[in-house]
Amino acid sequence: MATASYLESVLNLAQRANVIHKIVQKIIKKDLKFDAIAFRGMSGALVAPEVATELGKEIIMVRKADKSHSGI
User: Fold this and answer.
1) pLDDT (tens digit per residue) in 17-38
2) Please, are residues 55 and 25 in contact by the beta-carbon 8 Å criterion?
3) Which of 10, 22, 56, 57 has the least CB density, counted as fewest CB within 10 Å?
């Protein structure tokens, strides 16, 4: 199955775990203060919920108004 190259690192289980770990560590190191993780797109949907869970944060999905796959 062909995928967009930017998705390859988050579709592979081991690579996705590594990406999530790196993101969490960078956020912790920078001591950033925030209430939620916001994400867009498929790559964000694969990573953001796990990052939010690790950090104990809420999650927000942001979509472009003109990009609905549901037909709504």
Assistant:
1) 999 999 999 999 999 899 999 9
2) no
3) 56
